[in-house]
Amino acid sequence: MSGRTRGRVCPQRTCVGCRERTDKDVLLRVVLIGGSLIPDLRGRLPGRGAYVHSVPSCLEQAVRRRAFNRAFRGPGPFDLADLREHVEREARTSTERP
Ligand SMILES: [Zn+2]
């Protein structure tokens, strides 16, 4: 599903859920702030980031395999409320067809 880049090299990142390597723009950046995983919608929050597809299946895979613990080098558990809410909201809007 990758398009041609016509010489422009896009930064690549790996989804911590499905481990697919893809353009950074496609993935949601997640940062750890005070024990909570926060979706970094503008890509501007400071600190270490992890990248995940903004879909529930990838988020759940990442949680199940403790990918966030590895990415943020912490034992967790992390508060996923904000991140989950964001991903689920996106999933709902993308399935709603006008
Ligand atoms: Zn993924």
TrEMBL record:
Residues 13-84 form the YlxR domain. Coiled coil: none annotated. It comes from the Bacteria. Pfam families: YlxR. SUPFAM superfamilies: YlxR-like (SSF64376). PANTHER family: BLL0784 PROTEIN, YLXR DOMAIN-CONTAINING PROTEIN. This is YlxR family protein. It comes from Streptomyces smyrnaeus.
